Protein 1
Amino acid sequence: MSEKDASRTSRRTVLLAAGSAGAALLTAACSGPAGTRSAAGQPSASPPRPSGSGSSGPACVLTTEAGAGPYYVDLDRIRSDITEGRSGVPFRLDLTVVRVSAGCRPLAAASVDVWHADASGAYSTGGATFLRGTQVTDGAGRCVFRTIVPGWYAGLAPHIHFKVHPDTRTETTSQFFFPEDLLLKVYALQPYARRPAPKHPNRRDSRYRSAGTAMTLALAPDGDGYRAAYTVGIA
């Protein structure tokens, strides 16, 4: 392998390669006997149950895929708190990754990237890394990101991008949306209020109209911010 090729071997690749051998054992140990726990099964102290739209529908379904957009960077920065001092309403995102084709068993050692705009609608570019990060799922398929509610921009529904790498060869890419009534409340606060928000930040986006039902997070109050949980089902 040349020096150039070697430089492409990311920390994520190393983690995935190291974790793949033990992923099945970790998942079995943390999920209990097969068939006794749902894909969204959580102890009573866990965050609210994952749901795409706040409904009581099944959580163990394939996640609706979407493009990565123009701002994805293979940053590979392993961290849970991705704010880097960016101001905004705090938001905690609890994710559980499951393999739908394997009976919705939790997927351990999967790499999850998230990235989104700040309160002003700007993405980190160039050498900046704010509001970007990667986590590797634990034995129960879980990971947590601490960030802020994203701002709006460019006629699109406010969203958080995510990409799941179950191994070194495949990936699933999609995005989460937010309830419009909550966004309007958030955008009345500083620093979001420095820019007048659209009257309907979600409805103007065709992507939201086609995938919003499945990919809108159900948020709950969490201190001075919010939290949400979601089960990401991959094939």
Note: The chain has one domain: 3-31+48-234.
Protein 2
Amino acid sequence: MLAVCSLLLATAVSMAVVGWLPRPAAPQMRLDQAMQVLRGERAADSVGLRVDMRAQAPVGTGNARLQQLAADGLHHPAGQVSLVWAGSSKPPDVHVIGADGEQSSAGTTAVLKAAQQVLASLPWPPFELAVQQIDGRWRVVSSAYSDLAAWRRQVVLALLGSMLLLAPLAAWAAVRMGRPLRRLADASAHLDLHAQPSLPDDGPREVQMLAVALDASRTRLREQAQQMTRMLAAVAHDLRTPLTGLRLRADFAPPAQAARMVADIERMDTMIEQVLDYARGELQPPQLQKMDLVPLLNDCVQAARLRGIEVAAELPVTLPWQADALLLRRALDNLIDNAGRYAGAVELRAARMDALLQVDIMDRGPGIPAEDRERVLQPFQRSETSRSRATGGTGLGLAVAVNAAHSHGGQLRLLEREGGGLIARLQLRATR
């Protein structure tokens, strides 16, 4: 509708320019200025005139009295001077009282000369004044006015006026389209598979259709991801049955072989538990509750010490926050275990900064190369240099922490620690 209205308005303005605007009027000329140009007393372009040579005298309607006046001013015989008005222009009707009288006196002559000067200085419709040269050609003075140039100027001005008329409509259309698109873009920037609220679908019909399509795509992707995650969780859960059988058989094996078998079984059981933790984080929406996080962080520290990890904690007295205790506990345990596995000693710090909660798990281990930090945050990804397969694990520990951070509206960042080592920075945003 906006495009059709704009097109109709632009077409109406164009038709008005072509069909109803009057033709630009040509500027008037003065006879005395034309004579000055022919006598070489002033430049033609200084008074809007032009001079050209022609083989024939200009054709048009003339006035004998004005032609005689021009011949006298140019000091040429009347037969060698031509003063005509071409086209639709008509010569002025000039009549000097007393000019044809038989009696003449000095006073009358002075009056006539004054009248001639007045006639020469009056503005007339555009004319052509020509003087015949010795070679028989005619030197013609005419107006430098161009109908085409004047018409173009008038059309350009009219089109500029139409642009001013269309500008408010275009601005209104841009605002009407732009605001809903910006709101949709802002909402899409924070879109994930766990988000439940629908995207804003106000604004023009096209924007509404785009919002509905994005919402439908998110729903389909969420269903596909949940289906694959359920399958992964089912496979991991079913693996526990044969592992239990293998543990029973290990009891009847020789002691040396039994120890190795139990170690492998425990390692596989740990991997299965990590897969199930990742699947729970993907399938279950976060259960955010108001709580003090300091006891939760202390529990994580004490549990890590029982697992043989040296942990030094620097925590505030109290830290109220909206959090899912189970998700956050899984994330912290994984981050502490990773740091302890590769560095031995771990430092934990927590602080609140306005609407952001920041928990740093720091170590002095080999760290992770900068080019691998984004990759190892993905599921089943491990660093090939410092995190060898001999250390165990499935590459899901960091992915579980990433899911927990996203569930709390935050993020997990891996940073290089000054002096060597790695900082796993878990940032959580306050929920409204």
Note: Residues 250 and 373 are 39 Å apart (CA to CA).
